Amino acid sequence: MAKTSKTDSESVTEYILNLPEESRDIVEYIRQLVLKIDTEIKDHIKWNSPAFYFSGPMKDFDPKEYKRDMMVFNLHRGRILLVFPTGAMIKDETGILEGKYTDGRRLITISDMADAKEKIDCLKTVVKAWLEYTRKM
Fold it and tell me: Please, which residues bridge with residue 84 across strands?
């Protein structure tokens, strides 16, 4: 019998199922909401964590610019960070994006499920702004 490989989404599901329960519930909550924002948002494992990317058409670019990469979870050291590799390019009218990293990254820190639910509307706004910016490139 031929071995079948997992889809990107199945790999993300497996990763999440292996997280501690409190993190698992938060990550899955955010995952489902982000994926529902737009059909051209997909998820996969990148940098050893669940990540979201733009699957729509784009002009050619240097892969080191991470233009297709929207957001990656950083789930190390008992915290949940949502890292936007190109977050500095987003016009963040919500003020939710943190940090002034020279590489252009911006972050959202999530402390628990209540915090995730409180920040979800701002996260959706930032994701939509990222999509708008990306589609113009």
Answer: 106
SS3 call for 93: coil
Furthest-apart CA pair in the chain: how many Å?
53
User: How far is the C-alpha of 80 from the C-alpha of 19, rounded, in Å?
Assistant: 12
| Dihedral angle sign, alpha carbons of residues 112, 114, 118, 123 | positive
Strand, helix or coil for residue 82: strand
Please name the amino acid found at residue 102.
Answer: T
Alpha helices (runs of H) in 7-112, residue ranges in sequence order: 8-17, 21-37
Report the distance separating Cα 12 and Cα 17, nearest Å: 9
Residue-level length of the chain: 137
Instruction: Tell which residue, 39, 67, 68, 38, has the closest CA to residue 53.
Output: 68
Give every CB contact of residue 75 below 8 A, 6+ residues apart in sequence. 19, 23, 27, 49, 81
pTM, two decimals, is 0.88
pLDDT in tens, 77-128: 778 999 999 999 999 999 999 998 999 999 999 999 999 999 999 999 999 9
Residue keyed to tokens 């529902």 = 36
